[in-house]
Amino acid sequence: MRIEIKEKSFFNSIFTDYFKISKDTTIQGITTDSRLVQENDLFIALNGKFVNGNAFNQEVLSKKNTLIVSEEAFEDGRIYNVESIDNFLKDLCKYWINKTKAFKIAVTGSNGKTTTKELIHHLLLKNNFTAEKTEGNYNTSIGVPLSLFSFSLESDYYIFEFGANQKGDIEKLTKMITPDFGLVTSIAEAHMEGFLDIENIKNEKKKIIEFSKKGSFGPDKSIESVLLKVKKILKDSLYSSNHHLIYNMALVVSILNEVLIIDEKKLLNGLKDFSLPPGRGNIFELIFNGKKIYVIDDSYNANPTSVRAAIENLHLLKIKKINKKIFIFGDMKELGKNKKDFHSSIGKLIDNKINCFFSIGNLAKETFDSAIMVPNKYHFDNQLDLYLELTKIIESNDVLLFKGSRSMNLNRIIEKLISESK
Questions:
Q1: 50, 47, 48, 74: which is closest to 61 by C-alpha?
Q2: Please, what is the Cα angle at 7 between 145 and 148, to 5 degrees?
Q3: Which listed residue, of 235, 239, 330, 401, carries a Cα 20 to 30 Å from 33's Cα?
């Protein structure tokens, strides 16, 4: 990742203050990827599980006015040594947080956090506020502070997404940012290898409420009236059967109305042109080999709860003259010791709800084996074979749902479909 610093003067002042440097620095961007380094960039040399960023220090220093922060000591005036990069970034965050007057909103949850973050940002902009947000999935102890340094100090709102794959992640991020409002979208079986059981996930997510000034956790019955209004707005759209999206929309409208005192009618009106982030359940049409088909791109990530929701959405989808419902499914990762059982349960769930099932991956084979009532099913070890078989059976008005963990790269199959469509 690489970010461009908006408040260059302020960042350079806190950087020189932190390291007690007498001369001015000219840092314009920050990156953790040596391949993205530009002139006047600060390179954060992370020593990761597979790659040590310090191996690329000389390559970085070959570019004009570049600087490096590293946990390893080097005899080079352009490399600054810190005991902990996490603590270095946390300390710089404190400078930033103390300087800005922006209202800080933080979102976490097992499902829906990226869409919720994007929706909050969209509605704030629609209501003529200035707002900044963490980009993509920059939701870690590295990604969150780097995103912060790309924000304007003068903006009205900062919206953060907090991710967690082990105990302590949410508490660390919340203490770093000190949100004015923390929101938990959902609790589900995700990152089970790090959390072991769902109670640990719940306890970790609740830290965002504990260390924020105010917060909201989980389902809220008080938004029933808003839910009805959101359903009315989406009743003629392709998303009218997406109950999880409708709930998240109602929750966001309710919170922004109650906490930030933004007019409910204006918030509801702002939903009409909201677009889902790529890979989070967005639906679009393609003309493939002269045939109109529908693609549901839910390929960004997967856990048992989000997969069940995606299948239910496909089952209830309101499109006239649907031909076949086709589910393309890849492994769900990081599910711990019960990973096979989780995959088998999905196979039983799709019985009688879809017409064709395509699976890829060792764990998805468990789903394939347990889906005994699906009329047509296929399992593959590689994407090319899957794609070739899929394109053979595609007919007009078919609906294709793609769902799997990010590492399964199902988005590549979608991209190939798009590239070969009109």
A1: 74
A2: 15
A3: 330
Query: Tens digits of per-residue pLDDT, 127-162?
Result: 999 999 998 778 888 999 999 999 999 999 999 999
How confident is the model at residue 336, as a pLDDT?
A: 84
Contacting residues for 78 by C-beta, under 8 A, at least 6 apart: 61, 66, 67, 68
Phi, psi at 149, each rounded to 5°: -70, -10
The contacts of residue 86 (CB under 8 Å, 6+ apart) are 141, 142, 172
Contact assessment for residue 134 and residue 117, using Cβ atoms and an 8 Å cutoff: yes
Specify the pairing of strand 103-108 against strand 157-161. Answer: parallel
* Whole-number pLDDT of residue 196: 46
E runs forming strands in 84-200 = 103-108, 131-133, 157-161, 181-184
List of the chain residues with pLDDT < 50: 191, 194-196
Question: pLDDT tens across 249-270, in order?
Answer: 999 999 999 999 999 999 999 9
Collapsed DSSP state (helix, strand, coil) of residue 205: helix
Closest by alpha carbon to 339, among 348, 349, 331, 347? 331
As a whole number of angstroms, the distance between CA 228 and CA 412 comes to 37
Residue type for position 349? L
Rounded distance between C-alpha atoms, residue 342 and residue 363, angstroms = 9
- What backbone phi and psi angles, to 5 degrees, belong to 191? 55, 45
What's the confidence (pLDDT) of residue 109?
A: 82
pLDDT at 385: 97
Distance of alpha carbon 311 from alpha carbon 382, whole angstroms: 23
What type of residue is 98?
N
Residues whose CB is less than 8 angstroms from the CB of residue 94 and which lie 6 or more positions away in sequence, other chains included: none
CA-to-CA separations, 289 to 183, 357, 389, 395, 413, in angstroms, rounded: 45, 21, 14, 9, 16
Q: How many CA atoms lie within 13 A of 345 on its CB side?
A: 11
Closest alpha carbon to 67 in 54, 80, 56: 80
**Alpha helices for 260-360 (secondary structure H):** 264-270, 304-316, 339-350
Model's pTM, two decimal places?
0.91
The pLDDT score that the predictor gives to residue 189 is 54
User: Phi and psi of 324, rounded to 5°?
Assistant: -110, 145
